[in-house]
Amino acid sequence: MTHILIVEDEAEIAGFLRRGMMLEGFTAEIAADGHAAIVAARDRPPDLVVMDLMLPGIDGLEVARRIRSASDVPIIMLTARDAVPDRVAGLEAGADDYLIKPFAFEELLARVRVQLRRRQRDDQPTVLRYGPLVMDTAAHTTSIGGRRIELTAKEYELLDLFMRHAQQVLTREVIYDRVWGYDFGGESNIIEVYVRYLRQKLEASGEARLIHTVRGVGYILREE
Fold this sequence. Notes:
Helices cover about 45% and strands about 20% of the residues. The chain is an alpha/beta fold and about 220 residues long.
């Protein structure tokens, strides 16, 4: 499920944007200042960032620069400033698009969809590789060391998530949002069950473990 990071210090606007994005089928998270935005982008990587230019603490331009230095995630900048130099500064800081306040939510949504389609078309590889593991997303096939693996739909989605974030710790919350799209509750062991299924299939011929538990946090795909 597509995850949107909304960086906005005005609570009413942030809440409006979050509700609107969720009604459109996205998951959405709010960061109320620049520092929180940088942490959220690092710990819960979004598929797209909608960000106000004027933020307390670290301003939007600097936040955009820092996010862009670590990721190619699309960034849509929101601002009340309509001057050309301000728009240029936003784009040079790493923003992909620029929207002047006040704006219609429908226009923002259209721009969000354009950026998501562009990223999916241009940046999504058809073959994902990590160590001996290969996923062909066009053919929907998976193999390890040349051995074909048959996966269920949810197993495939989960492994695809790990492959696209190899060597990065994925929290339980991120996995819930991206693979299942809703929260099963703190007592659910659905992630543990599916990780076990994946391990059994990936290690069926004695292969080394690739999916590791990070105790108290989540899981990571890495070679030991």
